[in-house]
Amino acid sequence: MTPLSTVFAAAALAAALVFLVLWLLERGRRRRAQNAREEREWDRIDRELELAEQAGRFRIIGELGDVAVAAVSRVVSQAEGMRYAAGADPEAASRSAAGIETSARDALADLRRLQNAVAEGGRQSLPAPGLHAARDLFRVLREAGLEVTFTETGEPFELRQGAELVVFRILQTSLGNALDHGGPGATAVVAMTWTADGLHVTVDDDGIRAAARRRGLDRAGVDQATAYSADDDLRAVTEFVEGADLNELRERAALFGGVLEARTVPGVGFSLSVVFPALRHHNGVHGVPLR
């Protein structure tokens, strides 16, 4: 090899090394930039989730405030009635005092729940929906395309307005998510089981299966259906099981001693279960600190 050829070979090798170093540096820069973009995206998702959770908490606080205001209004009305009755019938006034005490404790319980919700986390006062509005909710969702089946067992007992509101919101949110994930044609089975002291509410839907049917997937396309179900399960887990909606429902249920569990049934849909073991006693001040 001539000296000139040696020089060219050395120059080519040096150029190759320079290009290799530049390529490695650029690759590292791109990887760092990608990691930074992914980190920013996760931060954005976390911030959106926090904002959604805060919005849910504000809704809880507002609704509990409406319930507390209504309870205090009842105490005021009873007190006014007792004042007018005191002159004519002292014994009736004495009996009314016991009723006022009970109503006042109920109002205090509602205020304590409101205080607890604020500690963890200009509305127009409107009548809060309760279990009586659940059938209207089912009708609206059926009209939107969700096939709702409702069963009720056991002997129902009267709930206070705050407890009714919690159960209604659980039904509203879970069925709304069933319709969002499954679309028209999805089905949901709602069951309410009353016990001597509590209530068990379950909502089971076939949103994943309904979405697969809507995309033209059936048993003949097993591989496609399996792949789609896995993707849909992942979306269900990230968007609902660990999402702001479910966190809000857990907080609502916990206010009345309820325990909420939720899971995705692979290839089928979503299953939600809420157990209120002592809801009858949570109608008043049970479990709520009064001092």
What's a concise summary of this model?
By secondary structure, this protein is an alpha+beta fold. Helices cover 65% and strands 13% of the residues.
Commentary on this structure:
The chain is α+β, with helices and mostly antiparallel strands and 291 residues long. It has two domains: 1-125; 131-283, 2-Layer Sandwich (Heat Shock Protein 90), CATH 3.30.565.10. Helices cover 65% and strands 13% of the residues. A five-stranded mixed beta sheet has the order 1-2-3-5-4. α1 packs parallel to α7 and α4 (161-182) runs parallel beside α5. It starts with a helix and ends in a 15-residue tail after the last strand. Mean pLDDT is 76; it is low at 122-126, 219-229 and 236-240.
**Gap between N and C termini, in Å?**
98 Å
Q: Percent of residues in beta strands?
A: 5-15%
Structural class: alpha+beta
- Level of helix content? 55-70%
Q: Kindly report the CATH topology of the largest domain.
A: Heat Shock Protein 90
List the secondary-structure elements in sequence, H or E: HHHEHEEHHHEE
Number of helices: 7
State the total count of DSSP E strands. 5
Q: Label the CATH architecture of the largest domain.
A: 2-Layer Sandwich
Which stretches are poorly predicted, pLDDT < 50 over at least 5 residues?
122-126, 219-229, 236-240
Main sheet characteristics: 5 strands, mixed
- Name the CATH class of the largest domain: Alpha Beta
Strand order, biggest sheet? 1-2-3-5-4
Shape type: elongated
Seen as an oligomer or otherwise, the chain set is single chain
Return the domain count: 2
**Overall pLDDT confidence:** 76
Find the CATH superfamily of the largest domain.
Histidine kinase-like ATPase, C-terminal domain
Protein name: histidine kinase
Pfam family, one: HATPase_c
GO molecular function: protein histidine kinase activity
EC number: 2.7.13.3
